[in-house]
Specification:
Layout: H1 2-9, H2 11-22, H3 32-50, H4 58-81, H5 85-90, H6 102-105, H7 109-125, H8 128-156, H9 160-166, H10 174-186
Helix pairs in contact: 1-3, 2-3, 2-8, 3-8, 4-7, 7-8
Length: about 190
């Protein structure tokens, strides 16, 4: 249960990181992002290792772990490679709006991969605590991106209001999928 709580508390440094981007911009507070990320990862690992499991058949475990690895790779891509890393996570300056690729599908694609990761981990392990972890962490992530979307990003990213008008919050729609595909075809 302590691991679960550690991961839940990991969202607090993420809020502090966002506040720093719109508030006083104290460079040392940029460390709050990796701190929060590590707390959530450690909490997840602790839950996976500490809680008793009732795993499904081996072939299902392999399938769900493979899907979890894919979701993790997509999450890491959305957070660290689809965004300009230096402006987003290192410098105290405001970030740059990204509205193509995954970010043409929806404004917060990382939430989709985050939820898929935790769903697959629960299915692979069959742990009751992992189910609660998946539900709680995903809910906390949705609240976090809601706060970012309403209060932080409009102040941090030029053009964010227009982006909000044309791109869905979390769930891609037909128009956003077509727009993402058109932008991808237009790139060399």
């Amino acid at each position: 249960m302590l691991w679960f709580l550690l991961g839940c508390c990991g969202f607090l440094p993420l809020y502090l990181f966002d506040w720093n981007k719109i508030g006083p911009q104290i460079p040392v507070l940029n460390a709050c992002f990796p701190l929060g990320f590590l707390m959530i990862a450690a909490g997840t690992g602790g839950v996976l290792l500490a809680a008793p499991a009732k795993p499904p058949a081996l072939w299902l475990q392999v399938l769900f772990y493979a899907l979890a690895a894919t979701a993790l790779a997509l999450e890491l891509y959305a957070l660290f490679f689809a965004l300009p890393f230096e402006k987003t996570y290192v410098s105290a300056q405001k970030g740059t709006l990204v509205s193509d690729g995954m970010y043409a599908l929806c404004r917060h694609p990382g939430v989709l991969w985050f939820a898929a990761l935790y769903l697959c981990l629960w299915l692979a392990r069959g742990q009751g605590l992992m189910l609660w972890t998946a539900l709680a962490y995903t809910a906390l992530d949705i609240v976090h991106v809601f706060v970012q979307d309403r209060f932080c990003f409009p102040k941090m990213l030029a053009g964010y209001e227009a982006y909000r008008q044309e791109t869905p919050f979390l769930v891609p729609n037909g128009r956003s999928v077509r727009r993402a595909l058109r932008r991808r075809e237009a790139q060399p």
